[in-house]
Design a protein that fits this description.
heterodimer, A: mainly alpha, 10 helices, globular, B: alpha/beta, Rossmann fold, Alpha-Beta Plaits, 2 domains, seven-stranded mixed β-sheet, four-stranded antiparallel β-sheet, 11 helices, 15 strands, 32% helix, transmembrane (chain A), transmembrane helix (chain A), ABC-2 type transport system permease protein (chain A), membrane (chain A)
Chain lengths: 250, 329
């Protein structure tokens, strides 16, 4: 009587999750908005190729976070997750398939945007960075991917899209206020600090490679900032994963 | 030898602890035993613990106690049997922006099922014409039918339906009843949780009644219904013929009680025997409809506010392989 495979493969689950995520309105409308914002910045005063990369990274990180939150939080809140888990009781498997789908979609979306935005002056970027180009692209991709993972984990923790967005807004507000009260504090705590350091590092590297190093420039700064970003992502991702596996689902 | 029980739940319990540390039990002791190949009605008032029990069976919520599906401990070994189980759990939802077809396709794809299975279940649930409409635009009934279609995708041996008639119109309810019966006739086991006692009476073989987080009774439908059928009889003549009909039927062994302009006839024989008897006596039947058997009364007695399991009236419950059948708990 039963026709379904008793052990459907992870790849099938991943493909279904990828299709679901890519077709979500929040994903592709968000991608169009990201592209539009990058375009506006591209043709509105920012002429430097590095600036374009940073803009893509910034909007890409926002997009990654928002789409991950919409996917995970929306499904939990609406009850669609309960229906899905009725067919896939291995929650960890669903979590990893979904996370991987979010990561792949974010990476492809951001990479496409970067290529589109910088396509007209990519040779200039290559010339000015030399062997650092690969490193810069890595940073530009990794930051949105980490933001997406943190978004998925925050949504799993909060249980809804709005709460997860509220957490991000609250964190940014807290940073803003604390930076007014104690100047410089925002660069020392929270997951956004290493992102800021990554951007600074890229700028410094850019200046250095052009033969105009800023005072105190150290072009190994982005490496450690990246490690810190990964540690934050791992920490928040782990808490989100644990919550996902233990949550009662409606 | 295959285990005879499709579902076994023993002493399932669960408590919620609030933020301020107060513990509230939602399930106290639920026992549920569903025989293979039967339609099992799982009844209880709102908040009795039906949906929580079903969610626990499907691994969606954590509970204490022992649960088995086809002999496998769940939720630990649920992945081993999930391909044999199709379930809709209390107002199932799908992403609203995809069509019904797309939602089923995602499910089928993730389970490794071919797309033709989607057409099959859409046919069964009569959703073909609405397959490409956005789920968010579906009516309640269409959403419910899509959920049932999803539950049937894997051609499961056990189908768990939690309030499947929610939001369905009368045609939909009838369709659901026929579908449930058909599934049972194909040898599948159906566990159905519902408020519609009349529906359950027409399709269920066994019943479990829960109230206040406890199983208060379990047994075969016949035992609950008292084994006697009730009929509402109206005659195509003036009131005087009603008393003649009452006497005629009582002489043949039926119990007859006047109710308004009709007669309620209680007996073991089928309905056609009533019409035959009355026709032979020169009385013409205008209508003869089956009415609720004893299930409704038993249900209301068992689930009345303030009734505790130890104070339950002695309802004759008999039968079966279920260790809890034959007893009020």
């Amino acid at each position: 009587m039963t026709t379904a495979s008793p052990h459907p493969s992870f790849l099938r689950l991943f493909r279904a999750e990828l299709d679901r995520h890519a077709r979500r309105r929040s994903t592709w409308v968000g991608a169009l908005i990201m592209l539009a914002l990058c375009m506006v910045a591209r043709f509105d005063g920012y002429t430097d190729a590095f600036d374009h990369l940073l803009i893509c990274t910034t909007f890409g990180a926002m997009w990654g976070y928002l789409t991950a939150v919409a996917n995970v939080g929306g499904d939990i809140r609406s009850g669609a997750l309960g229906t899905w888990l009725t067919f896939h009781p291995r929650r960890q498997r669903v979590w990893w398939a979904r996370l991987l789908a979010i990561i792949v979609t974010t990476a492809i979306g951001v990479l496409a945007t970067i290529l589109l935005i910088t396509s007209t002056h990519l040779p200039a970027v290559v010339t000015s960075t030399g062997h650092g180009l690969g490193w810069l692209f890595l940073v530009a991709l990794l930051t949105p991917v980490c933001a997406a993972v943190m978004g998925a984990a925050t949504a799993a923790l909060c249980g809804s899209t709005l709460s997860a967005l509220g957490v991000a807004a609250g964190y940014l507000t807290l940073l803003f206020v604390s930076n007014i009260l104690i100047p410089g504090l925002s660069s020392t705590w929270g997951p956004i600090a290493p992102i800021g350091d990554l951007f600074d590092g890229i700028n410094n590297y850019n200046s250095y490679s052009r033969g105009h190093p800023d005072s105190g420039t150290s072009y190994d700064l982005p490496f450690w900032a990246m490690i810190r970003l990964l540690i934050w992502t791992l920490a928040i991702g782990t808490v989100g994963t644990l919550r996902w596996s233990r949550r009662d689902v409606d | 030898m295959l285990p005879e029980m499709a579902v076994e739940v023993d002493q399932l319990n669960k408590s919620f602890t609030t933020w301020w540390g107060r513990t509230t039990p939602s399930l106290i002791s639920i026992d549920l035993h569903v025989r293979r190949g039967t339609v099992h009605g799982f009844l209880g008032p709102n908040g009795a613990g039906k949906s929580t029990t079903i969610r626990a069976l499907m691994g969606l919520t954590r509970c204490n106690g022992r649960m088995r599906v086809f002999g496998h401990e769940v939720p630990e070994h649920l992945p081993r049997v999930i391909h044999r189980v199709g379930a809709i759990v209390e107002r199932p939802r799908f992403p609203t922006e995809f069509s019904g077809y797309r939602n089923l396709r995602h499910l089928a794809g993730s389970l490794g099922l071919p797309n033709r299975e989607i057409g099959r279940v859409l046919d069964i649930c009569d959703l073909n014409s609405a397959a490409h409409i956005r789920y968010g635009a579906y009516s309640l009934g269409m959403k419910q039918r899509l959920a049932i279609a999803a539950a049937l995708l894997t051609e499961p041996d056990l189908i768990i339906l939690d309030e499947p008639t929610n939001g369905l119109d009368p045609q939909g309810i009838r369709h659901m009843r026929q579908l449930t019966r058909r599934l049972a006739d194909e040898g599948r086991t159906v566990l159905i949780s519902t408020h519609l006692l009349a529906e359950v009476e027409q399709i269920a073989d066994d019943i479990t009644i829960v109230n206040g987080g406890r199983t208060v009774a379990a047994g075969s439908l016949d035992a609950f219904a008292g084994g006697r059928q009730r009929w509402r009889l109206t005659l195509a003549a003036h009131e005087a013929s009603a008393s003649v009909a009452q006497q005629t039927l009582q002489q043949r062994g039926w119990q007859v009680v006047p109710e308004g302009g009709a007669l309620i006839v209680l007996g073991d024989e089928p309905g056609y025997a009533i019409t035959q008897t009355l026709t032979a006596a020169g009385l013409w039947v205008e209508s003869l409809t089956p009415v609720s058997t004893g299930l409704e009364e038993t249900f209301l007695q068992l689930t009345a506010p303030g009734v505790r399991p130890g104070e339950l009236p002695p309802t004759p419950i008999t039968s079966s392989t279920n260790p809890h059948h034959g007893s009020l708990r």
